[in-house]
Fold each of these.
Amino acid sequence: MGTAQLAAVPEPKYWHLRTVLLRAIDSEFATGQVIPNERELSARFGVARATLRQALDQLELEGRLVRRRGIGTLVAAPRVGVPVSRREEGEAWQPVDCVTAPAADKLAGALGVPAGELVHTVRRVRVEQGQTVATESLHVPDRSLEQVPEIRLSGAALTGEEQARAVLRRLERLTMDGESRAVELGVAEAEEAALLQRPPGTPVLVVTTQFAAGGRLAALAVSTYRADTCRLTFGETGLVEVRPAAPVRTAS
Amino acid sequence: MGTAQLAAVPEPKYWHLRTVLLRAIDSEFATGQVIPNERELSARFGVARATLRQALDQLELEGRLVRRRGIGTLVAAPRVGVPVSRREEGEAWQPVDCVTAPAADKLAGALGVPAGELVHTVRRVRVEQGQTVATESLHVPDRSLEQVPEIRLSGAALTGEEQARAVLRRLERLTMDGESRAVELGVAEAEEAALLQRPPGTPVLVVTTQFAAGGRLAALAVSTYRADTCRLTFGETGLVEVRPAAPVRTAS
DNA sequence: GAGTGGTCTAGACCACCTC
DNA sequence: AGGTGGTCTAGACCACTCG
C-alpha cells in the first residue's frame, strides 16, 4: 500500500536552531540584551559555527536580532511603524543634496522624458527616533517645474542642500493629481548602505512613488527603507491603534 | 561570462563577485537561462564554493536569480506587479479553507476582542500567472458579522472552502469605513512555505490589513507575498507603467 | 548514474570594539 | 590584549532531477 511519507525528511539543523533560538529570545531575553556569542552557542548546541550563523542570519532577516561587530548579538527592538505618504512627511525627510544633470537612458525611460533631458535629483534621508531609517532619490524633470517660478536667493553658488530645498519648494507648488506606489525587496549597495549605517547587502524595502500632475508623470521617488527596523504603514493613519506585535499565525 | 579579475581590496570577495555576476546576467544571459553551476563558477573565479554561494544568495534575495535543486541556477524573470487593494481582488484570491475557533491571547489582542471570542479564520491563496504568489489568513471575529444574516445552504456539513466562501460573502455585506495597511519583511515558516512552493525561510513581504467598520476593527488580514517574485503596487493603478529594469530577453 | 544545489564541518584569519 | 562578529577555505555528504 502506498505509504505516503511526507515528513520523512528531517528539517535542516539551522532551521531547527532558529526555532529554538526564537523561543529563547522571546521568553528569556529582553530587548537590547546581548545573547551568548557565536562560539559558545555553536558549542552548546553541538554544531559548527557556520551552521549556527545560518540560524542567526534568519533571525536577523526577520528583524529579531541585531549583530554588531566587536560587540555581540543583541535582541532587536520591535520594528518602527513608518508612515508612507506625502502628508506629514515634511519633517521626517532631511534634504542632503541635489544634482542637476541630463538624464541617462534608464532614468529618462522611467520618467517618460527624452534621454538627455535636464533632471534634478534630490537626495534625502529620513530620520526616525534618532536613527536614519531610509534614503531617497527624488527625480524631478526640469520641465515639470516650468510653470513654477524659479527661486533665486542670491548670486552666490548654492550648497547642495540649498539646491535641494529650492527644488522641493518649487515641487510643492505643483498641484498633484495623485501618487502611485510600489514596494519590493532589495539590497542596499555601497552608497545607500553607508547612509543607512549598514553594511552593503543589507535588505531594504524599496518604495517607488510616481507623482502625477496634469495627467503626466511629474516626479519619481525611489526610497529605500531599512527592512530590519521598519514597518511601512499606509492608508488612514490612526484608524485603529491595535498593532499585531508579532506576525499572527493561525490559531487552529 | 568572462573570467573577471578579483580586485584584492577593501570590499569582501562575495560582494565583488555579486557585482561581477550581476553585470554578467544583465548583459550575457536571458531570462530563464541556466548559468554555469556553482562548482564551475567557484573554480573560474578562484574562490571557495561557499564564497560564491554567498554572492548567489544576494542575487537570489534581489530576485535576480532562482535556484532549483537538481536543475541549476536560472536568471529570474522580472518581478510581477501585484495590486494590493480590496478592489479587483475578488478573482485573485482563492479560498482554501476556514476554521472557526476561540481566539488565542495574541490573536484576540490584535483584533481587539476578549480572548476566547469566536473568530473565523479564512485561509486563501493568490494565484498570479499560474503561480501561487501569496497566502493570507483573514481573521473575522464572529461579532463583526452579527448584523449580517447567516447563510444556510443545507443541513449537511460544509467543506472548509464552502465555509470560507460563506464568511467572505457575509463580510462583503458589511459597509467598511476604510482599510489600514502595513508592510514588512518576514520569512515563511513551514506551512506558508509549502503553500508558496518554497523552502522554509523564504523571504516574504508581510502585509497586515485592518478593516474598519462602524469605527471598530472588523477584520484583520495577514497576507504573505513571495518577495522574490512580487512587487506590491498601491494606489491609483495604471497611472504610468513603472519598470525601468533592464532589457528583457527570454531564453528559448 | 551523473549532475545539480542544499547542508554541514573544522578549522583559519581579519576588522572592529572595549578595557 | 582579548573578545566579538565577518569572511573565507577545502573539503564532505545529502536530496533532488534527469536521461
Note: Chain B has six helices and eleven strands.
Amino acid sequence: MLQDQPERLMDHKHGEIEDPRAVLKDYVAKQGLKFTRQRELIADVFFKAGGHLKVEDLLEQVRKVDNQVSLATVYRTMKLLTECGLASPHRFGDRHTRYEPAEQEDEHHDHLICTTCGTIVEFYNPKIEALQEQVAKDNGFRVAHHRMELYGTCRDCQEKKKKS
Amino acid sequence: MLQDQPERLMDHKHGEIEDPRAVLKDYVAKQGLKFTRQRELIADVFFKAGGHLKVEDLLEQVRKVDNQVSLATVYRTMKLLTECGLASPHRFGDRHTRYEPAEQEDEHHDHLICTTCGTIVEFYNPKIEALQEQVAKDNGFRVAHHRMELYGTCRDCQEKKKKS
DNA sequence: CTCTCTGCAAATTCTTTGCACCTAG
DNA sequence: CTAGGTGCAAAGAATTTGCAGAGAG
C-alpha cells in the first residue's frame, strides 16, 4: 500500500522558481513578517528535497539540522510558503498532505503514482491539457486549476510481481 | 470556498448497478455477515441520493428515517459497500471523504467542481482516457485507476460575479 | 523595544475502535 | 442460540491554535 512506505521520489525535476529563498524573504518583508532561522531552514530543506514530502518527512529532514524545530512550525511555514506562491499542497491516496514546489506558469504537471512502492512520476501532456479546457468550456466552466493522477504499478513493481 | 457549503449535486445520473441492494445482500450472505435494518437503510439512502455525499450528510438523511443510527455505523457501512464494490470513496478539495456509487466497467467518469458554489458535474471524455493510457504506457506504468478533477467556476457563479 | 514567532501542549476535526447489549439467521 | 452488528464514548491521526517566553527588525 501507499500508506507508510519510505518513498522513492521522482528522478526528474521540473521547472523551478529561480531563487525561492529570495521570494520568501521579499514576501515576508512586505507583509511585516519575519525571516526567521526556522523559516529559512524549512524552506531550504523543502526546496532541496524537490517535492512530494509529507510534513512529517519534512520535519525529519529539518531536525537533522536543528532538532528543536517543532511540527507546528513546519505546518505554519508550509502554509506560509503556500500563501506566497512557493509551494502547493497535494493529497494522493493516503491521508497525508504532501507539498511540492509551486509550478511556474506553463510548468504545470500531473502525476503517475505507483501504489506498490510509492514512486511518484511527473508528466505533462499538452493534448490532455487542451482537451480538459475543451471539456470545461463545453460545461460552462472556467477552470482555475486541476489535478490528474494515474494510480497503478510501475515497471519495477510489475517485474517484481512476475518473479514472485 | 468549497469547505462547508450546502451542496447542490449534479443533475445528471451515470450508469448504475442494476440492484445494489441485492448485490449487498448477496455479498453479506456469502461472507457470513448480516443484512441489518441499518445496512439496508444506509444503502438505500446512499443509492437514492446518487453520490458525492459526505458521511455526515448521509447520516443526516438516514436519521430522517431512523434517528437512532450512529455515525460509526454509517462509516462501517460505507466501508462495507466499498468492499463489495458498490461504492467508492473520493476526496475533493475539502477534508471530507465523499462516497459515490461504484462505476460499472466502462462507466468511469471524472469531475468538474465549482469552487464557489460546490456544484459537482461529471463528465467522460474518451480521448482523454486514451491519452492517459498512452502516457502511462510511455512511463512503464500499468494503470489501475485514476482521478481527474477540474476546479473552477461554473456558469452561474461566473454570471453572479459579473453582476456584483 | 516591539511585535511576530516558536515550542509546547491542548484543542479540533474526521475517522476508527473497544465494549456491553442487541438481533439476524 | 450465537456469531456478528450497533450505539456510545473513548481512542487515533493529522492538523490547528492559545499562550508565554524568545528573537528579528
Note: Chain A has six helices and six strands.
